[in-house]
Amino acid sequence: MTTNIALRIEELQRELPPQTRLVAVSKYHPAEAIMQAYDAGQRIFGESHVQELRQKYEQLPKDISWHFIGHLQTNKVKYIAPYITLIEAVDSYKLLAEINKQAGKHGRIIPCLLEIHIAQEESKYGFTPESCREMLASGEWKNLNNVRIAGVMGMATNTDDETQIEQEFRTLKALFDEWKQIFFANEPSFKEISMGMSHDYRIAVRAGSTLVRVGSKIFGERNYIK
Ligand SMILES: *Cc1c(COP(=O)(O)O)cnc(C)c1O
Prior knowledge:
By secondary structure, the chain is of the alpha/beta class. It has helices at residues 4-15, 31-39, 50-59, 77-80, 93-105, 129-138, 162-183, 201-207, 216-219; strands at residues 21-25, 44-47, 65-68, 86-90, 110-115, 147-153, 192-194, 211-214. The radius of gyration is 17 Å and the shape is globular. Pyridoxal-5'-phosphate is lined by residues 25, 27, 48, 69-70, 197-198, 213-217.
């Protein structure tokens, strides 16, 4: 049986250009919903709570690539370090250093994205462009041999003003281009720009997104009670 979830995955896969990959954001949705997307060929899933991800990781096929997209507390890194494919929202050097330490214990190199605060809204999370530039310029991160900085991630303001959303995404793309040139010129693995969610992924794709994080458009409203 082809389910609605499967149909929406197929639609999105058809719509996205080849340079943009789909992260199916499955937080608060049960394993059965994830399996419907999986059976439609989806392999990258995004989760934002450590405990929930741990349960799903145990239950679900091991060829799923899990992206951690939420705010990650340093004391929880150890639980996901053995298997996480990409940590998308690294918002401090301290967190990067902890991921490095935990990755080392498993002999892994964990790819990470730097979360940049591009929205007008107040948020506790994300580097400001200035603080991130400073962190990169300090060069300390080059000693962290068990993490790989693979790009940037950001969220636009939650607004209907598409011009503003587009401007914010273009800001993130410009920061990526700047840092690619200055700090990662010889590193092809610095390549990801994660931006765009259910309501604004089309704008993000136009602005150069390589990863879109789409949840409710695929799985519906998040009403799963754990
Ligand atoms: C929940 C979440 C998404 C998905 O949001 P939808 O609007 O449901 O597509 C994307 N990115 C992050 C960081 C999220 O926490």
